[in-house]
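Quick one:
INPUT:
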């Protein structure tokens, strides 16, 4: 048997290996770590575009794209330092021969001696440029497609929102048109009738003094006065229709809401009747506002009448004024456009039956009423809403079944102030509001509770929360609490007042109440004098400053 020569066979194998490397765009890499010499296969040199190579490691490294060099250098150093056997990497190169950018995928094996020193690095490098380009094209196409889908989705959503807005505007326009048509007909025919009736009543009034005094004449005079009052009420109804349909222009002027409220107190008390008491709490240094005084008086009167009707067995109406700041957090949570800034607040609160959430949502709808047939037009709150919105203001209803109702009117602070400008309360220094004390927050509304927790946690306080009085008492029994921050109205049979009574048996505990009702509507007859209270809505600064002030006492 004749043996095959070893050398020719080896040369043939090497040639076949070179052909395979060239066909697969694969190159072989050998690096002697000890002397930093590098051997590259012909296919490797071709892939890298190296016409001449001096066999140095640094020369190979320079071919790598400068944005990838540091990453690859650190990778190799870490592999050797941690004595790893294999490593893989993807990186870019810039071919010296033509400057073309290529993507490489390298897979390498490291050989170590018995002492753990790296001797050799053997590797295979594959040109994956075509794969990378194809993937980039697919990715770009996918992103383009996704963006097109998103854009179309956004367009459809915008069209849908625009359609909803258009439908709402159309519905409102149709409603306003119907009210306008009704108003036009009523104003024409009704005013004619009122003129006739009023003329007759005036004539009777002129004749009464000429009659001989008698019980019959007294009854006639009383009947005439009652009829005259009916005419006046009919005229008010007409004016309400006109106000709602915005056919009566507003005549805004700079006014002092305190003086306006004080000026109509007698009228309000007569309107409320003997079973309903009236209390006014007028803030000192109240800012001026720019509004139509007649319409504002009508709005307050409407709200007072609603409050009276919610208390058939009697009760109390509280009218309160205050300087307020509606911050970003508050205006972001309301459905209608409201500007952040300074407002004059006028709140009308009652101790009546209250309303559920569904009723509150519809309260401003035209012709919506919960009163018995013939006892309400459903235009009172709509008139208030229309006036306030026309005045660039905001109106908010706070109400719960069995807890009464508070309607807060916010009118923008006038830019033209008198010398009361200096009465503006300084903005609380939030840097002083931070603390580390432990505070228990009790609030049944999840969103409001989360908002309060967020504020006080951000200020550094340790916060514990409870949804009702029972849970709060359990927390108080297990933890050392520095301040109790609780809503006045709570579910579960224990309100904030009762919770505070139990909690304040613990020495040193401070209590801060919050409510959406006016402060005095809640305080009088329910809370002890000197107890701190913050009204809703409260801002970050307001809550932080009040908590700090109370804890520092």
């Amino acid at each position: 048997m004749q043996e095959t020569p070893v050398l020719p066979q080896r040369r043939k194998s090497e040639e076949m290996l070179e052909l395979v490397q060239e066909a697969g765009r694969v190159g072989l890499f050998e690096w002697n770590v000890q002397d930093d010499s590098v051997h590259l296969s012909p296919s490797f040199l071709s892939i890298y575009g190296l016409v001449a190579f001096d066999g140095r490691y640094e020369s190979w490294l320079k071919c790598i794209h400068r944005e990838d060099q540091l990453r690859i250098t650190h990778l190799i150093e870490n592999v050797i330092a941690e004595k790893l056997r294999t490593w893989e990497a993807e990186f870019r190169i810039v071919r010296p021969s033509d400057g073309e950018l290529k993507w490489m995928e390298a897979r390498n094996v490291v050989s170590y001696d018995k002492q753990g020193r790296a001797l050799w690095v053997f590797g295979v490098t594959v040109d994956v440029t075509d794969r990378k380009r194809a993937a980039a094209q697919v990715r770009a196409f996918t992103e383009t497609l996704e963006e097109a889908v998103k854009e179309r989705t956004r367009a459809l959503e915008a069209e849908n929102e625009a359609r909803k807005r258009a439908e709402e505007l159309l519905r409102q326009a149709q409603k306003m048109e119907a009210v306008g048509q009704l108003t036009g007909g009523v104003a024409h025919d009704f005013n004619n009738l009122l003129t006739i009736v009023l003329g007759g009543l005036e004539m009777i009034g002129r004749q009464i003094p000429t009659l001989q005094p008698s019980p019959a004449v007294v009854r006639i005079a009383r009947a005439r006065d009652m009829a005259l009052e009916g005419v006046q009420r009919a005229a008010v109804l007409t004016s309400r229709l006109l106000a709602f349909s915005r056919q009566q222009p507003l005549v805004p002027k700079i006014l002092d809401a305190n003086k306006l409220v004080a000026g109509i107190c007698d009228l309000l008390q007569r309107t409320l009747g003997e079973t309903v008491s009236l209390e006014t709490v007028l803030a000192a240094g109240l800012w001026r506002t720019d509004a139509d005084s007649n319409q504002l008086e009508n709005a307050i009167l409407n709200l007072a009448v609603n409050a009276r009707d919610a208390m058939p067995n009697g009760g109390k109406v509280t009218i309160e004024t205050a300087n307020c700041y509606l911050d970003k957090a508050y205006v972001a949570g309301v459905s209608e456009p409201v500007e952040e800034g300074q407002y004059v607040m006028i709140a009308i609160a009652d101790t009546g039956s209250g309303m559920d959430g569904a009723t509150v949502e519809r309260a401003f709808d035209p012709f919506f009423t919960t009163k018995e047939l013939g006892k309400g037009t459903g235009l009172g709150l709509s008139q208030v809403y229309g006036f306030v919105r026309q005045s660039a203001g905001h109106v908010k209803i706070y109400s719960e079944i069995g807890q009464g109702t508070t309607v807060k009117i916010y009118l923008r602070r006038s830019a033209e102030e008198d010398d009361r400008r200096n009465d503006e309360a300084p903005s609380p220094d939030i840097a002083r509001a931070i603390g580390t004390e432990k505070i228990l927050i009790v609030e049944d509304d999840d969103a409001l509770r989360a908002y309060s927790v967020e504020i006080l946690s951000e200020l550094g306080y340790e916060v514990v929360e409870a949804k009702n009085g029972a849970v709060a008492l359990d927390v108080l029994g297990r933890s050392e609490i520095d301040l109790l921050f609780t809503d006045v109205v709570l579910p579960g049979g224990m309100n904030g007042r009762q919770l505070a009574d139990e909690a304040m048996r613990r020495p040193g505990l401070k209590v801060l109440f919050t409510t959406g009702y006016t402060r005095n509507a809640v305080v009088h007859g329910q809370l002890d004098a000197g107890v701190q209270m913050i009204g809703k809505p409260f801002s970050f600064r307001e809550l932080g400053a009040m908590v700090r002030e109370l804890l520092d006492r």
